[in-house]
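Hey,
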Amino acid sequence: MIKSRQRDAMQAEIIAVGTELTSGAKLDTNSQWLSTELAARGIHVEYHTAVADTLESIVSVIRHAIRRVQFVIITGGLGPTLDDITRQALAEILHVSLIEDPEYLEIIRKMFERRGREMPERNRIQAKFPAGTEPLPNPIGTAPGILCEIPRLSASNQCVVAALPGVPAEMKKMFLEQLLPRFPFGKTFIRRARVNCFGVGESDAEEKLGDLTARGCNPEIGITVHEATITLRINATGTSHEECESLIGKAKQEIRDCLGTLVFGEEDEELEHVVLRYLAFRNETLATVERGTGGLLSHRLTEVDEHREWYLGGVVIPGGTTSWNLLQYDPDWLGERDPVSKEIALEMARRCREMTGADHVLSVTECPQELAGSEQSPIAYVALVGKLGEVAVPHRLLGDQSFQKSRAAKAALNLLRLEILKKQEN
């Protein structure tokens, strides 16, 4: 149905239908996923639009989209309930009626039969399509999609409009299997990649990168920060996937040349993934003991699927003086020492290693709150004790207090990562 056409800048708009999106009750993750998929194939997404479940609003945003782009993808509003009105909106724009398709009605009935249920009469609406449009099969749900071409008033060509279900699993499968094979590729392709760093602030990282982050370059490199992890987002534009990948490969190497060991991973990798991979390669184990992070360090490690072989567990010391008994401290010895100190951090790790027998132990001391009127941000100590020796370093508790525990846990993981790298270099 979609005629083959090649354009230097094929543009698309994604419309997400649902009051739950415009009210903030749910996040629109479908548009993010679709934008990435389309950009990788040379189709540039110029607009994201979220619209509530009202016929007038849906018709309005679709009409606006048709005037300004060649492709429109709509997600949501194809279910059986009264607020699912995407099909009605398309029928109104096309000035046609909804026509029931006997074939799709039978497909929906059989799907309910396989589930051991009788099809509710309300689901009959899902077998109705605007006259002249093409149904898109939904192999895993009851809501078929809709594909059509609508004349563009301000241009000589047609606008391709595809409506897909809002359920992410259904939408993705239908996009990849039903819709994508019909879309012509553009002449300009975009590929994206991410490089993750830890151990330096955003402005320091940008200074080290120099002209790499300058606007208007290809590839373009942007910086985002989340809980002290810096992510460098690489966007490469080229005439082929291979050209884009070559540009990304060169950019990654330039980033590593500039930042060295500050770089710890790529894409979705977190510090815990990298640390456990190092331990697996070395066939060594890790335990943790933490006071100021409330178990967050242990939590991060246990979120990694392969943690069981290499992470032996940890001790979480809550607030209060009696809680130190978990490490069997002598109260007199403890009372003479600053609980936020290098000495305490190392002793915590030593005692935990005696208890667990781990090859390495990471510790985090208490993370004190910032005192009113103080000119200095508070610090915690993170320490490592084990086969790599003993080391403790201060960690400055900067920024929003809601993120300080996460940053301290990352600082501990990064300490082990850096010590392993030092060992490998020697």
